[in-house]
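Late entry, written up from scratch paper. The run itself happened at the end of the previous shift, but nothing got recorded in the book at the time, so transcribing now.
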Amino acid sequence: MKAFLKSQTARKYGFVYFMLLPTVVYLLVFQVYPLIESLRLSFTDLSLLVPGSGKYVGLQNYVKLLTEDANFQPILFNTLKWVLCTTPLQILMGLAAALILNQKLRFRGLWRGLAMAPWVTPMVITGLMWKWIFDGSYGLLNYYLGTSYVWLGDDTTLWPALFLVSAWKGFPYVTVMLLAGLQGISGDLYEAASIDGCGTLKKWRYVTLPSLMPVVRVTTLLIFIQQWTRFELVWSLTQGGPGYRTSMLQTYVYTKSFRFYQLGEGSAVAVISALLVMLIMVVYLRLMMASEEDN
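Output as recorded:
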């Protein structure tokens, strides 16, 4: 350590390392350590309700979740349904908004600023606001429709309501990303397409869409990860209910760990969730790289 402090590298980059130190410490304490501790706890039977628990049980928690827990498979299906529906919905809404905001509109700066309002609204505030809108007794939606429908209590409207809230919250981020991509497309490409006789639809198909695809691929991956790990929105709206009908892996971790105090099983759910999202990311990145090589 002393030799490093006296080295030329330390003298040259010492201030840079010092400035990075708080970030590195934060990542180690609040990111790396919880991940390692969750992995360790997943191999134990730790329960806050059982004195003397916390012994090593190997893969018992994982086997129990996959073979004995009747809620786990429906919850896994709910998680996949959530990300596979909300991710394309946000991409489509964000793309539409980006195309509109890229036009020469009057007060365009104002509309762009207003479009960011859902994105900057805190997640819990968003959930509580929409929960009030959907409320069966005093909700704003029922007030204007003149009904007393329980939107978050009926299977017919429960998931569409959640998808709507997620799309409203997430589409501004997609809009920002795609708007930046649209502004990065050279005007010479559109000019060349016009000379070749391309109309609006052909320009969109052969110029705009191919030029946007790299941004769309990266944005889709980021939105997918965000949706997979999104806990606050679903919890503030339904808390995973009624029953477990809207429970997902991220909410099931909380239910297992902090409602039933089964920290071992809750950690196992968290590890399974992390492994699944990593596996999907690897497959997606390989497909994306293969697609870019073909082009």
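Residues 8-41 form the longest helix (34 residues).
(Scratch paper discarded after transcription.)
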